[in-house]
Specification:
289 residues, alpha/beta, Arc Repressor Mutant, subunit A, Trna Endonuclease, Chain: A, domain 1, 2 domains, 5-stranded mixed beta sheet, 12 helices, 45% helix
């Protein structure tokens, strides 16, 4: 089986993807563009980084590291809304020396780690002092809770709550009826004027949802709703993504594990954000006394 690309080998494809996207893009848009540029085989895209700890694929995991390194190198920046963009320096760079980027970033992280070491005098591991690792930690814990601690009924109720908090009305869970794989239904209200009847399926997966599962879901929803919504703790194979948006077929929106985690965080449902105070000494201030 073909091995997934290393994170440093994705640095230049990532820059190329950013340029093709017009200089900015969401994580999903960047992922799809890099996959297209590199023509990564579907069997590689289906590999999950650590099925016991989360739903993120190996390629997505390594691409996240590539984004982190290019951000620390000064070529990328990201907003609180999850949009990544080329910096002024990044727009002027066609390609980079991947070994040089890794060398410079790791040296900078080690320098920062030594400067900010804790009161005990021990510094954190240089590879872990970054936003990406912190982001992964809470998502891995959430994934374990959703896939191991929650019952199927509780997960359906969670999906119901998420939809209600997101503006849906008349949300019902119907999973116990065994209605062709349909777990619930609701009405999506758009700006108070338009509405769409939506049927949803919510499944706890540790791996990837296949195109066959999407086809089965569509078969159950045909003629009964305007749109379908498939929510999973796992991921979707590229074939599943294509099937969900196939021309001439009823559209199905997909929500993977990462997107579900971000939505729970946004809605403050079981995921709370804590502000940690960080105290720093401004030596320049004292020099000016």
């Amino acid at each position: 089986m073909t091995k997934p690309p290393t994170f440093d080998s994705l640095l230049n494809p990532l820059l190329a993807a950013m340029r093709q996207l017009g200089g900015s893009g969401t994580v999903e848009e960047i992922y799809e563009k890099v996959v297209e540029i590199e023509a990564i085989p579907e069997e590689v895209l289906a590999m999950v980084h650590n099925p016991e700890r989360g739903s993120q694929t190996e390629v997505a995991y390594r691409l996240a590291w590539a984004r982190t390194y290019l951000r620390k190198y000064g070529l990328l920046e990201n907003s609180s809304r999850g949009v990544w963009a080329l910096t002024a320096n990044g727009r002027d760079v066609e390609c980079v020396d991947s070994q040089e980027v890794v060398k410079v970033v790791r040296a900078q992280v080690q320098k920062d780690s030594r400067r900010d070491k804790d009161a005990s005098g021990s510094s954190q591991d240089s590879e872990c002092v970054n936003d990406f690792e912190e982001d992964e930690e809470w998502k891995e814990k959430l994934h374990r809770v959703l896939t191991q601690d929650l019952s199927p009924d509780a997960f359906e109720r969670l999906a119901q709550r998420v939809l209600r908090e997101s503006g849906f009305v008349a949300v019902e869970v119907t999973g116990k009826s065994g209605d062709g794989g349909i777990d619930g239904k609701g009405i999506a209200r758009i700006h108070g004027f338009m509405s769409f009847h939506v049927i949803f399926q919510c499944k706890r997966y540790k791996g990837s949802v296949s195109a066959g599962a999407i086809r089965d879901f569509r078969g159950a929803m045909v003629g009964r709703a305007d749109k379908g919504l498939f929510i999973t703790t796992g991921t979707f194979t590229p074939a599943a993504v294509k099937e969900a948006t196939r021309d001439g077929a009823p559209p199905i929106d997909l929500v993977n594990g990462d997107e579900l985690a971000d939505k729970l965080k946004e809605l403050d449902l079981g995921v709370t954000k804590e502000m940690v105070e960080r105290v720093k000494v401004n030596d320049e201030w004292f020099k000016n006394l």
